[in-house]
Specification:
Elements (H helix, E strand, L loop, with lengths): L1 H10 L10 H4 L2 H9 L26 E6 L5 E6 L9 E2 L6 E2 L39 E5 L2 E7 L5 H14 L5 H6 L3 E2 L7 E3 L5 H9 L4 E3 L7 E6 L2 E5 L12
Bound molecules: 6-diazenyl-5-OXO-L-norleucine (DON).
């Protein structure tokens, strides 16, 4: 019931007006997946149950994709309009949206931009200058050969998402899907808060709070698409936080 109503809240409406993903919602594989996630011994709080993200539905976010082939060619691309629909202005006659990348500058040095970042004069607006970006399409090399390719959307959280997924693979030797799935956290100096996804134990949060961190619980952080080279194998991982999939040819 809980799971159905989460989906209902997002995906159902008058089909004369909206496209209801009925086939996806009634797919036995999807239903079995939901059933498998139910713990008969313990209720799952609704805060941990969200409407499904069905593939084919495009997110309004910055997009990252990672590509690799057997010859060791790799591509990492992150592209963005910055905010949702950018500046909300369409180029007349051309049909594409203009970005609002000016907000990646310090629009008013010392005051927060749309991501809450406080930045100084070095990143102030000037003609011909490029604004700072948090986008980090990343190719990791080991012994002169590609080891992994990854990236994510998420404004300033991109930096920490990519850092954490890289550390998970390099230092904790996780396979690429575990590295992507692992709960994430983010601190950006100001505001002075440690944002943490679900998945950390209450003990950890308690210890961090006692050590002086202001812990704030957040929903999904980023959407990492990663590939790892592993002894001749190419392991791809899409982020379960979103509806992407890893594809191969
Ligand atoms: O370059 C930057 O840091 C920002 N323009 C990125 C914006 C972004 O990732 C928004 N979407 N999730």
């Amino acid at each position: 019931m809980r799971h159905f109503f989460a989906d209902r809240s997002e995906h159902l409406g008058d089909p004369d007006f909206v496209k209801v993903p009925l086939t996806a919602m009634l797919d036995p594989k999807y239903i079995l997946k939901i059933r498998g996630s139910i713990d008969a011994e313990k209720a799952t709080p609704s805060s941990q149950v969200h409407a499904a993200v069905f593939t084919g539905r495009e997110s309004n976010e910055t997009t990252h994709f990672s590509v690799a082939d057997a010859q060791g060619n790799v591509v990492a691309v992150t592209y963005t309009l910055n905010g949702g629909y950018g500046s909300k202005v369409t180029a007349a006659g051309l049909g594409f949206l203009l970005n609002n990348e000016m907000d990646d500058f310090a629009p008013k040095p010392g005051e927060a931009n749309m991501y809450g970042l406080i930045q100084g004069e070095f990143n102030a607006i000037q003609p011909g200058k490029t604004p700072l970006s948090s986008m980090v399409p990343t190719i990791l090399m080991r012994d002169g050969k590609p080891f992994a390719v990854l990236g994510s959307p998420g404004g300033p959280t991109i930096i920490n998402t990519v850092l954490e997924v890289a550390i998970n693979m390099i230092d904790w030797n996780m396979n690429v899907q575990d590295a992507v799935n692992w709960p994430r956290f983010h601190h950006q100096w100001l505001p002075d808060e440690l944002r943490m996804e679900s998945g950390y134990s209450p003990d950890t949060i308690d210890l961090l709070t006692k050590r002086g961190y202001t812990v704030k619980h957040v929903g999904a952080q980023g959407e990492c698409a990663a590939i790892r080279f592993n002894n001749g194998w190419l392991e791809g991982a899409a982020d379960p936080r979103s509806g992407g999939t890893a594809g191969g040819y």
